[in-house]
Amino acid sequence: MSETTQGLNISFHGAAGEVTGSKHLITTPAGSKILLDCGLFQGKRVEAAEKNKEFGFDPSDIDAVLLSHAHIDHSGLLPKLAKDGFSGKIYTTDGTMDLCDAMLHDSARIQEEDEAYFNRNKDTLPDTFVKREPLYRTEDVDRVLKQFVGVKYREKIQVTPDIEAEFYDAGHVFGSGVIKLTIDTPEGYKKLIFTGDLGRHDMPILNDPEYAGEADYLLIESTYGDRAHEGVSTLKEDLAEIINKTVERGGKIFIPVFALERTQEMILRLEELMYDKKIPSLDIFIDSPLAGKLTKVFEQHPEYYDEDMKERHARNPQVFSFENLKFTESVEESKELNFIRKPCIIMAGSGMMENGRIRHHLKFNIENEKNSLLVVGYQAVETLGRKIVEGQKSVPILGHDFEVKLELKIFKSMSAHADMHALDKYVQSVKGLKKVILIHGEQDSREAFAERIKSMDLGADIVMPTIGEKIDL
Ligand SMILES: [Zn+2]
């Protein structure tokens, strides 16, 4: 087909052969253009900054955005999209909308602080230190938030005259959605399912991922396309064991966490352990202002809770506010945690220990063998977390080397993504498929997933797009 043909097509501007920068542009025969997600590329600073500069399309041409969930690698470039000319609506669930308010403001704040740091130190910084203009500022976030429209699961939304959309529960993080489109074309209605990120079954707080029925096209994530998760059955026992051991020797427990979902899950697990008297009653400090804000959103939207969580909420409407749980706001409050002499639990970001307040806590506590460090999330290469997890005896923190003397406990079973078995089931749940498009996964992971889909004999094409590629539907 020639470039001028007005067929239904989709082009990929991120999360194609990698896991960040999710952005997929659909163009319809009637000329509508809608964007699925508008995520920030993350990873190595200089490379990511380069990729985040250009969208690969004109933002002012986009009619509307459909946003699957609040993670920054799916939502983080929305303020720039609006700043660069996008004036349409952004449809997402009410929960995602409220989470984005906190997440995007936090993202702008980090960029503004980076810039301020550069301006303060530009005379002494090495030449290799690249000045980075913020991609957007607080006022850009304020503006884009006005373009958000909150929707309910299974509510039909007329996005453009020829596109109708519906969100289903993706079970990945709070408010996350699988998006199903029904597109009116000269050849009849075409249905497309975009999974966003898919969650896993039996996680706290959230419902299991919901199937979205039949479709012609499936755009499915493939983060764990080649791996199965370990069971979560002994998680609570393992948590109780390490906490009790630490308390007996008079130490503190540090948990580096991601502010969204992992923090709230951990709060609930710890509260349960205390309620069941499996661990003593300890103070839990959430030392992250962002995590505090996000936890409030969890409290405001009980409609996203699963059955267990609804029961819990019915017994106690303040699920996330109990006596031992303390949220610290200011840097001073955070510093004061150093002076606590009795055992306690401190959760702080960032999850990979590269940034944030956790580094300050580790600086003061990593060389004390009474303490424990609980690693509950994936640690990317070259991060401080990865160095510790790999067993390095000495690690650099805030410019100095420290010996790793505290007890390390790694929990591998807490990923928020569906594993290979759950992904297979999702593909099999969609009847009538003509094309399965694998996105959001490293290449090895996609290829393994593609092989298994082939063996399902669905009679559908399997596509693994690269960035910038356009596919006719
Ligand atoms: Zn996600």
Description:
With 473 residues, the protein is an alpha/beta fold. The chain folds into two domains: 9-227 and 416-472, Metallo-beta-lactamase, Chain A (4-Layer Sandwich), CATH 3.60.15; 235-410, Rossmann fold, CATH 3.40.50. The chain has helices spanning 45-51, 72-75, 78-83, 94-121, 138-145, 235-248, 262-275, 289-300, 307-315, 331-336, 358-365, 384-389, 420-429, 443-454, and strands at 9-12, 24-27, 33-36, 64-66, 89-93, 148-151, 157-160, 163-169, 177-185, 188-194, 217-221, 253-256, 284-286, 325-327, 345-348, 372-375, 394-397, 400-403, 407-410, 435-439, 461-463, 470-472. A seven-stranded mixed β-sheet has the order 6-5-4-3-2-1-22. A seven-stranded mixed β-sheet has the order 7-8-9-10-11-20-21, covered by helices on one side. Helix 4 (94-121) packs antiparallel against helix 5 (138-145) and helix 4 (94-121) runs antiparallel to helix 8 (289-300).
